[in-house]
Write a structure and sequence with these properties.
- The protein has 326 residues and is α/β, with parallel strands linked by helices.
- The protein has twelve helices and 14 strands.
- The chain has helices spanning 14-25, 42-46, 58-68, 81-86, 88-109, 142-161, 187-197, 216-228, 249-259, 271-279, 287-293, 301-316; strands at 4-7, 30-34, 50-52, 72-75, 112-114, 117-118, 165-166, 168-170, 172-174, 201-203, 211-215, 240-241, 245-247, 265-267.
- The strands form four sheets. It has a six-stranded parallel beta sheet with strand order 3-2-1-4-5-7. A three-stranded parallel beta sheet has the order 6-8-12.
- The protein is globular, with a radius of gyration of 19 Å.
- It binds serine.
Length: 326
């Protein structure tokens, strides 16, 4: 039985991953680690233990690991790409300093560690289409710099100290539960909210800006399956390309219009996000993940769109028209 600590458990990924892990491993065996100001609420608070774990505070990590006999840490603390550009020093402190603190506790206590990397770990010199698993990683954002550093530091701790570190490179993640904050791929979440609210969506990226995206249920499954994978089959560790869909603003807009024909989108470009998106791959090649641990996505753009609209309709209590296509 695993005893798991999720650091950053009230964030975009953590709030859903913590609940899914509690369902799989037992509610008492998954600790919700949060920072003051981002306290757990509702079912996340009520369904299991919660502790203040600021990743920049190594003692808080060690105390929680000791108190609950933790053997696996999901490290989800990070500033997303656009907000990190506004606060690069803090992005490094959390992304790299925090990871170092986590890995040191893991080394001393024998914990496995999952730390997500990202499509943001690539840069302008990376091949942009079907980006290979092993390729040039020279990102130009501080977010990307922390992610590449994290991949290398995690691999170092695996090689040098035998810490069981594993990771995936997440695409933009789309969910109706917890909003992302300050990312470059956030538009692909915001567009669904605008559609269901009946508002005209102001798109911050121009047509033709392709990026990999993934529906949250697939992303959660990836995070769990990589940590459950047979280690003898893993040639890579930090970090695996994973992919399920790649689209630009026009493609997602037209997909939503199949279900909501009156929906409107206008372009209102954000130069920072556009520059970041232009430096990232259009699509990743996830062959290694498929071969080494059986990765396979379940959602495509159409099934994700149907699920997002249906659930946001309930969440926002609005009516969505029936599909217009056969
Ligand atoms: N979703 C992240 C961002 O946009 C990328 O991993 O910053």
């Amino acid at each position: 039985m695993k005893n798991i600590l999720v650091i950053g458990a009230t964030g975009q990924i953590g709030s859903e991953l913590t609940m899914k892990l509690r369902g799989l491993y037992g509610p008492d065996n998954v600790v919700c680690g949060y920072i003051p100001g981002a306290e757990p609420k509702g079912v996340l608070l009520e369904s299991g233990p919660a502790e203040i774990v600021d990743i920049t505070n190594p003692q808080q990590i060690a105390d929680t690991v000791n108190k609950y006999g933790i053997d696996t840490i999901y490290n989800l603390a990070a500033l997303l790409s656009a907000v990190a550009e506004a606060r690069p020093q803090l992005a490094w402190k959390i992304g790299v300093g925090g990871l170092y603190n986590t890995l040191e506790v893991a080394r001393e206590k024998g914990c496995a560690v999952f730390t997500p990397s990202s499509i943001g770990s690539f840069g302008p010199s990376t091949p942009h289409v079907k980006t290979p698993q092993d390729t040039i990683q020279r990102p130009e954002t501080i977010y990307g710099v922390t992610k590449v550093t994290g991949e290398m530091l995690s691999d170092y701790y695996a090689r040098r100290f035998g810490v069981d570190t594993r990771s995936v490179r997440f695409p933009g993640l789309i969910s109706y539960t917890t909003l992302p904050g300050g990312g470059t791929t956030d538009y692909a979440v915001d567009i669904y909210y605008s559609a269901v609210k009946g508002e005209t969506f102001k798109c911050p990226l121009k047509p033709g800006t392709f990026m990999d995206m993934m529906y949250m249920p697939d992303a959660l499954r990836a995070a769990i399956e990589i940590m459950e994978a047979d280690p003898t089959k893993l040639h890579h560790r930090n970090s695996f390309n994973i992919a399920s869909m790649s689209f630009d603003p026009e493609i997602i807009y037209n997909k939503i219009r199949e279900y909501m024909p009156d929906f409107k989108m206008e372009y209102e470009l954000d130069p920072l996000r556009q520059a970041i998106a232009d430096s990232w791959p259009d699509s990743l090649d996830d062959t290694c993940a498929r071969q080494e641990w059986g990765w396979k996505p379940e959602f495509d753009l159409d099934s994700m769109t149907q699920d997002m609209l249906a659930n946001l309709k309930i969440k926002l209590n609005k009516e969505v028209s029936e599909p217009v296509h056969a």
